[in-house]
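Assemble and predict.
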Amino acid sequence: MKQTVTIKDDFVPEKIMASGQCFRVSEGSNETYYFIAEDKIIHIRKIDSYEFEVSCKVGDWENYWKRYFDLKRSYSDVRERCYGKNGFIDEAIDFGAGLRILQQNPWEMLITFIISQRKSMPSISKCVQALSRNFGSEIPDGFDENDEAVFAFPTPEQLACTSEIELKTCALGYRAPYVLNAARMVASGNFDLNECSKLPDDELISRLTSLKGVGPKVASCISLFGYGRLTSVPIDVWVSRAIDNYFEGENVFLQYGCDAGIMQQYVFYYMTQTKR
DNA sequence: TGCCAGGTATAGG
DNA sequence: CCTATACATGGC
């Protein structure tokens, strides 16, 4: 169903697509963006300053996508209250205005960020696409920017009954056993992702890092993008470089408290886009 | 061709 | 606690 929605806050799909938090987004013609999450797909196109044309299943906009895009939160308020504490962060905020932290599915984040280690963002997208196409279910009436069928991200059960050999056909390399183990742990009920959402931030991280292939950085990404823990600050090579070169080795994100994860995202986007 | 990509596990000090 | 090294794969 097509409908017009009003979003009176930061929302630039192109920036979100390039921000390294979701790997199932693509751009079609007429600046239309295709987001896939779980067993859902949405097409989004800007038609006016605050007006967007969205196309998705009836009810999904209200019941799913508004939460996915974190539309309850005012990111312009966040930018305003965080501005002025640090010159480099201010630059990153200005550069990245339009970004949001998506509230994605924890299972998808778990697998996606296990895969992400020592891979480029395009490579991660290709792996996720291959996993979905090979092991996920086709989304009924779902079509991408090339008018081709779209596949949902595989469920824990679907991945649990694959093999390392099969997974390696998706270019997972040495991460294949990590992914298979995580899938079996979740599918068997030995690792309950829903229960994890009840844990405080630090316990959530330690629970996640108990899985093979999940270290502090990957756990921070799952915590931030999958569980909406905005205090999480994933420190990857780019953010680490920013800390070394522009923050005199100090983790300046901590002083932003509940907005720290958002500041991290602005800095990551700024660093990667400008190749600092 | 060597280096890097949204790192982690492991061994050794 | 710390540091060093191996790890698959693809792009440049």
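The mean pLDDT of chain A is 97.
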